[in-house]
């Protein structure tokens, strides 16, 4: 779970907490230098050509940093937009993650959320709030010209911390929601097709998933602001842990730390620092898929191209391709609000595959039931 400043800093004698506290105290330049030194020692750099079948938004040649234990970093593999007033693909995905993917919330008469049911909807941390507006982004338009960021931070949009896509993750139980009733035909909602396709392409670029089609079946979007962090944790709620985890960073830069499989192993005594900026991608495969990792801090003022002054980052579909209207569109309230949001936010889009090829969703229900029994 995402934490406010200070909640991860009670280090005691825990080496991971000590490392977290040390890196959290660094400024941007200090952490960047540490990350560059670590990459020079730990990572193997190589380039791969863009596959002919891949998204045209990817660069012709893509740099890959291969760290030990199956951890890969792709420093912004996306092409810059053709026009100075257009948005790159990461920014467009972030706009969807803010405007569309959180949905409309729960109807006012829907009653309390039942964690054992209601597993067909996208969920956000704000769905339990009875006063949540239906459309978070539209509700925040009134703050677009507010000069004081502290007032903008009082908006419902700024309070958005996470959105779940596809198979729905239960943050309390730390497993995926499945219906209790015996429904052989049950399937969770699909994640957005553009995101699923991109995740598969990014997996292919590492070479770690060659010959297999990555099936993106669940997604979690985290929204960080300066002062936020994510303590060291494991992502082990998926039955098929052999499949990679794909993560895209948009907006503000973050101090990412990769440790090891337990809190006292050699990797955890000296976690690897990785600076994740706008457009950067990480792919966790092999052993690293079950390693502790964290976000020690988010650096203000580092959003760069994501929040450029003329960027048209959330055009409606009927206007997005019109060059003549792009400049005017970039000055709409929607585009100006999105740019402001990205100047104050890191949007982190994570994608996972849950099941082995050929498995049905009944396998997720059976596995989840077994995990629940172990926890009792």
From TrEMBL:
Its cofactor is Fe(2+). Keywords: Iron, Metal-binding. Binds 1 Fe(2+) ion per subunit. PANTHER family: ALKYLATED DNA REPAIR PROTEIN ALKB-RELATED, ALPHA-KETOGLUTARATE-DEPENDENT DIOXYGENASE ALKB. GO terms for biological process: oxidative RNA demethylation. It comes from Macrostomum lignano. GO terms for molecular function: broad specificity oxidative DNA demethylase activity; ferrous iron binding; oxidative RNA demethylase activity. This is 2OG-FeII_Oxy_2 domain-containing protein. One of its GO terms (cellular component) is cytoplasm. It comes from the Eukaryota.
């Amino acid at each position: 779970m995402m934490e406010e400043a200070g909640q991860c800093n009670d280090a005691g004698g825990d080496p991971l907490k000590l490392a977290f506290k040390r890196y959290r105290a660094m400024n941007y330049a200090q952490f960047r230098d540490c990350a560059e030194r670590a990459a020079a020692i730990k990572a193997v750099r190589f380039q791969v050509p863009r596959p002919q079948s891949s998204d045209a938004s990817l660069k012709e040649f893509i740099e890959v940093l291969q760290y030990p234990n199956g951890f890969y970093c792709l420093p912004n593999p996306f092409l810059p937009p053709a026009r100075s007033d257009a948005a790159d693909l990461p920014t467009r995905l972030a706009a969807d993650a803010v405007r569309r993917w959180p949905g409309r919330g729960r109807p006012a008469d829907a009653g309390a959320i039942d964690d054992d049911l209601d597993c067909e909807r996208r969920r956000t941390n704000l769905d339990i709030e009875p006063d949540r507006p239906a459309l978070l982004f539209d509700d925040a338009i009134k703050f677009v010209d507010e000069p004081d960021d502290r007032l903008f931070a009082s908006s419902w949009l700024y309070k958005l911390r996470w959105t779940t896509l596809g198979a729905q993750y239960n943050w309390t139980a730390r497993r995926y929601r499945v219906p209790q009733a015996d429904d052989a035909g049950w399937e969770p909602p699909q994640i957005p097709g553009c995101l699923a396709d991109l995740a598969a392409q990014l997996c292919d670029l590492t070479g770690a998933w060659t010959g297999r089609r990555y099936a993106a079946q669940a997604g979690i979007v985290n929204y960080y602001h300066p002062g936020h962090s994510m303590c060291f944790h494991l992502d082990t709620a998926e039955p098929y842990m052999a499949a990679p985890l794909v993560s895209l960073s948009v907006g503000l830069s973050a101090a990412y730390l990769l440790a090891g499989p337990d809190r006292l192993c050699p990797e955890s005594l000296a976690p690897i620092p990785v600076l994740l900026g706008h457009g950067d991608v990480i792919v966790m495969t092999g052993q690293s898929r079950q390693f502790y990792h964290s976000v020690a801090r988010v650096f203000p003022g580092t959003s760069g191209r994501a929040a450029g002054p003329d960027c048209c980052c959330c055009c409606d579909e009927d206007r997005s391709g019109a060059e003549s209207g792009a400049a005017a569109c970039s000055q709409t309230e929607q585009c100006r609000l999105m740019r402001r949001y990205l100047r104050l936010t890191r949007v982190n889009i994570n994608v996972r595959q849950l099941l082995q090829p050929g498995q049905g969703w009944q396998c997720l229900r059976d596995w989840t039931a077994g995990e629940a029994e172990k926890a009792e």
